[in-house]
Amino acid sequence: MSVTKPLSDNTLGGEDGAPRWRRRREARPSEIISAALESFAAHGYAGTRIEDIARQAGVTVGTVYRYFDGKAALFEAVITQSIAPTLTRGEVLARRRGEQADRLLKRLVLGWWRLVHRRARAGIVRMVVSEAANFPDLTRVYVREIVARAEDILARALALGVSRGEFRSHDVQATARALCHLVLFGVLYDHALQPFDERNVDATRSLEAMLDVVLDGIRVRPPAPLP
């Protein structure tokens, strides 16, 4: 099996100045996953090679294969170990009972937006959408671990609002799915189309405006006073 040549110490050194291959072995899988995230986001799945990931992580190709079976396993690790765990905070928030439902929902949607809007993670969204037909199994991983999980979190917050009489009765799963679609489209637009849009649209403000429209439609309003 061919291996890549080590890069210079300056390139491979961490914050402590030590080359990566001299640091603890326990850190290597996470460093490889971080390198894979950057590579997939920048070059897409088809355009990324194990050699590129190894070079980015500062290890040999053999070291990558020591921890991961191949590129598909690396992509799944990026999703399940780097991106999906960040949804845990949203799951904790959605179980809280003391916060007003509309504020909770807004925090959850905007929190997920900030998560997937970051450069590398936005690149993963773009990659999954553009290469979905060619790599359906990987797309299913992203949908299952990220999209479906985020949808369930939002649905839980919406159902809480309905149960407390803050939101009117409605199809909470469909509303949660629509909110997820808003977030994902906003990411795609901001990172793929916005550079060519002379209007300089603020994607975050657009998402906030649409979220206000949704909340205005599901809030329970007190009856109007009698004339």
Let me know the largest β-sheet.
Answer: none
Question: What's the average pLDDT?
Answer: 84
Low-confidence stretches: 1-18
**Which structural class do you get from the secondary structure elements?**
mainly alpha
Domain unit count: 2
**CATH level-3 fold name of the largest domain:** Tetracycline Repressor, domain 2
Strand content: under 5%
Beta strands, count: 0
What is the end-to-end distance? 84 Å
Proper CATH architecture of the largest domain: Orthogonal Bundle
Number of helices: 11
The outline comes out as: elongated
Helix-strand sequence:
HHHHHHHHHHH
Query: From the alpha-carbon coordinates, what is the Rg to the nearest angstrom?
Result: 21 Å
The CATH class designation of the largest domain is Mainly Alpha
Give the helix proportion (percent range).
55-70%
Question: Please, could you describe this protein's structure?
Answer:
The chain is mainly α and 227 residues long. The chain folds into two domains: 9-68, Orthogonal Bundle (Arc Repressor Mutant, subunit A); 80-218, Tetracycline Repressor, domain 2. Helices cover 67% and strands 0% of the residues. It is built from eleven helices and no strands. Helix 2 (28-43) crosses helix 3 (50-57) and helix 2 (28-43) crosses helix 8. The radius of gyration is 21 Å and the shape is elongated.
List key phrases describing it.
single chain, 227 residues, mainly alpha, Arc Repressor Mutant, subunit A, Tetracycline Repressor, domain 2, 2 domains, 11 helices, 0% strand, disordered N terminus
